[in-house]
C-alpha cells in the first residue's frame, strides 16, 4: 500500500520505513535526471517538498534513517562516458531556505552554535545563486591540470579538455598564487547567448533547446571539445577546494583574490551584518532578476570569517555556515486545452494538463503535471486542502502555472471567474487508457485511506508498462546499452516483424540472431545503417556479463533502487542465492524471509515488494529466458585478509560512543562482515553501547555473543 498520502504525524513505524524507501528512490531518480541527464522532470518546489517530507519523517523516526537517505546524498553518479576525478575535498550542496523566517532562523543558529549573542557582530556574504553546473578547477604550480563536475559530491566527471575552451577560465594563474589551487564556481550560459543559439538552430531547421541551464550542462559534457567551444559558456568563481595556502581569511577576501587571478566573480556579492540588510539585498537582487543576462534561482548567504566557518563545520551533506535562500517559483496564466493520462513503469496513471503555450521564465511551457486525482480536486498528499473546494482543475479552465527552473511545471490554482459554463469536473479513467485493464486506487488497510496514485492492473500486458520497463532496463544505472534510447525502444516495441521486435528484456539479446536469420535487415531501415547496427549489436554483446547489483536494479522491482540493489547484491553474493531465497520467502515467513528483513536498510515493505515480484510466474519466466542470454557476476567481496569477522553477521545497538553508526558499519563491512538491523538466529555478534534494549535482550536469549565497543575494537584490531 502507498504511504505518500499519509501525514507524517500519522505514520506508523512500518509505514515510515516504506515512505523513506519511496522518497529515497524518487529523489535519487530526480537527482539523476537533473544532475546526470540534464532533464529534470519535476519542479524545484515539488523536489524541495519531497526533501522536506523525508527530513520530517527522519526527525520523527531517527532510528529509520537510511544509508541512502537524501539527507546524506549530494548530486548524482558521474557519467561513465567520462573519466572520473575524486575531489580532494568533497563538493557539498547547500540547505535551502524559503522564507524570511527561515533566514532569521539560519542567522540565529549561527550565533547559537558559536555561543554568541545575536549582536550583528558576525558578517555574512550574500550573492546570487547561479542556475548552472557546479565545477571544480584545479591548478598546480599555476597551470590548469584538471576540471571536474560535482558528480556525487565525492567523485566527478573529468571535463578538463572542455573547460579549457571556456574563455572565462584562465589556463594559468599569475605569479604568487599558491602552488595548489582549486577554484570552484558555476558554468552557465548567458540568456542572450542562449537565445542566439536557439535562433541559429531554428534557422537550420533543427530542434531548439529548452533552457540555458540544461544547455550549458549538456554543452560542457560533450565528448568533442569543439562542440563545447562553439557554445559560448561562461563561469563565475565563488568557492574553493584544496588550497596549499590560504591568501585571505574571509569568504569575501577569497573571492577578491579570484578576481585578481583572472576569474569573473559576481558583482552583486555584498558583505552584510544584519538580517534586515541581508533580506533587503535579497529583495534588491530579486527585482533585478529579469534584467540579468544569466539565470538565478535565489541568493546564497555564507558566514564571512573562515575561522568561524571551520568552527561551525558540516552536517552530513551541507555546511552549517551557509544556506541558499530560494526565490518563489515563477508564475503565468494560461488555459487547459486537455487533460491526458500517462502510464508509467509501475502502472501509475499520471494526469498531464495540455496548455495553451505560454512563456514562463524564458521557457515556452505547453504542459504541466497534475500529479494525481486528489491534486486535480485540490487535495494535498496529507489530505489537506491546497485550493478552495470549487477550485478543481477542468478542461477549459484558466489556470496559474508555476515554474521554478524545471521542464514540467505545475498548475498552482484556477481563475474561477474565467471558468467556461460548459467545463465539467474531471475524473481519472476507471480503465487504463493504454491496455484497457482496470485502474484502481488501493486502500491502506491500516489507515483506511486511499492511495493517492491510481494504477493500471495490467502489468506486462500493458504496453506502456512494458515499454517503460524496457527503458528502465537499458538505462544508465541498469544495463546501460548505448544505442537503445527511448526512441529506439519505442521503434522495436511497435515493430510488426518478429525479427525486429523487442517486447521483453530477453528479446534485446536475441535480436542479433533473429536478424541473421531474417530477410528484414535492420540496416535497411531509415534511421539505421551498417555502422550503427554493428555498434548496437556490439553494445548489446558487451552487456552479456553484468554486475549483480545492476542486474537486480534492471529488473524494475518496485521500491528497489540502485542503493537497495547494492544492499541485496552484497547480502546474497550471487543471483542464484538471491532468487532462491526470494522463492523460499514466498510465504512471508521462515529463515529466508527473516534474512531479507534483517538486511540493514531494507524494511518489511521493500522486502514484501521483492517477494511479491518473484511470486508472479510471468516475472520468473522472463528472468529465466534472460538468464539464458546474460550472466550476472557474483558480487565482489571486500579484501579482508585474516579478518576475524569475515562472513559474520553483526548488529550494532545502543548509543555508540567510540564511533558513529555509519563508521561502525563501514568498518565492519570493509572487514567482510554483514551488518544487520535486527537480531536473529543467524546473528554472530551484537555490539551494544549505552542504552541498548530489546536487541541486547534478544541476543542474550538466543545465546549470541555480545560485547561492548572496546571488546569489538579489540576483536577487529582497533
What would you say this structure looks like, in words?
The chain is of the alpha+beta class. Strands 12, 13, 14, 15, 16, 17 and 18 form a 7-stranded antiparallel β-sheet that branches. Strands 2-11-10-3-9 form a 5-stranded mixed β-sheet. Strands 5-4-7-8 form a 4-stranded antiparallel β-sheet. 35% of the residues lie in helices and 19% in strands. The longest helix has 24 residues, at 13-36. The two termini are 45 Å apart. Mean pLDDT is 87; it is low at 75-79. The chain is built from 24 helices and 24 strands. It has 6 domains: 1-73, Helix hairpin bin (Helix Hairpins, Orthogonal Bundle); 84-326, DNA ligase/mRNA capping enzyme (D-amino Acid Aminotransferase, Chain A, domain 1), CATH 3.30.470; 329-460, OB fold (Dihydrolipoamide Acetyltransferase, E2P) (Beta Barrel), CATH 2.40.50; 481-542, no CATH class; 547-633, Orthogonal Bundle (DNA polymerase, domain 1), CATH 1.10.150.20; 649-716, Rossmann fold (3-Layer(aba) Sandwich). The protein is globular.
